[in-house]
Structures are given as structure tokens and as C-alpha cells.
Design goal:
This is Outer membrane protein beta-barrel domain-containing protein. Helix content is 12%, strand content 56%. It has one helix at 9-31; strands at 35-44, 58-60, 64-76, 81-98, 104-122, 129-140, 143-148, 162-176, 179-187, 192-199.
Length: 200
Amino acid sequence: MACFYESNAQYGRSYGRDREYRRRQIREFQNFKPSLDVSIGYGFPNLDKYLLADFYNYYQGSTTRSGPVIASIDYRFTPRMAIGVMVNYGKVSRPYYNYYTGEQDFTGSITNAAVLLNFTRYMGMSQKIMPYTRTAIGINTGESKYLAADGSKAADTDEGSSLAYQVGLGVQFNATKHGGFFVEAGYGKYIVAGGLKMRF
């Protein structure tokens, strides 16, 4: 008569993995020191073009962009979490053409500075290559202008602030214990970005 037998070896292996993971976490916290991280970089493309207004009987030409230049100061208070402030600055402009004549009637531009509260979560155990996620939310404080060729105002617009946000997935490469560089992909203010990061 055959007897059913269930081995407990799988549970032993699982317990061993959990114990080793906890040991790594303990070592990670024991070796951790809070730090102030400063980063500066450049994003592409500048998605502030979506803040430019649409006008009835006009179509838009190609957008000219600069920036955004990205700077942030973050306090890393645990091995896996940091909170701080991110500032983006850039400019976009594009021509507006009359539907009926096909001629350019005016140009719209926005010079925008956005201030965002920044949350960063680090993943993985390596101190050299550190994947992370970013969630940032804040306000746009840009100035928009719609000017005709002679410099006169072509349209009145609302200069109030608007919601700014950025979500992203990136990797930080630490060349030394005092800093390195980062690359990131996301959406909100830009799609891809890269730059330098310093730790104090």
C-alpha cells in the first residue's frame, strides 16, 4: 500500500531565504547614514508644450524647446526612502497659423518654473547601482505670452498656476561614496533625463 509523504525541505529552504534577507536588511540599516543628496540634470523633451493654449481657427507649427533643467535637494532618511524638493526650468514656443490664409499670425511661448515635492524610493541592495522610482507633485509658475510679429499682444491668457507632476523609473550609478550620475525615464515634465548626483 502506497503512503503519501510530504517533505518539509521546501519550507526549510524558504525559511533560510527569509532569514538571509532579514540579515541583509539588518546590515543595510546598520551601515546606513542619513544624507543630503543634490542632483542637477537635463530632461528631454520639454512637455510644457501642452500648457500652450489652443485657439479657434488657428493651427500650430513645430515647437521649439529648451530644457527643462532639473535640480533637486533630497534628504535620504532611510536606506530606501528620500524626500525633497525638485525644481524644473525651461521654455517652449511655437507659431500659430491662420486656417484660412495659412500665414503665421502670432507666436506663443511659455517660460516655466515648476516647484515639486519629490518622493524617491530606492530598490535593490547594491550601493553601486541603485534602481529607484520617483513621484513628484507641485505647481507650474510659468509666464505665457502670445505676440504678433510687431510685438503686440495677440491674445489674453490666464497667468494662474497649474498642477505639475513627474513620475519616473531610473537608475543611479554611484562612482564614489560621494556621488555619481543618474538616468531616468518617466512622464510629466519630461520623458527622459540624466545628470549628476552628489551626496553630503
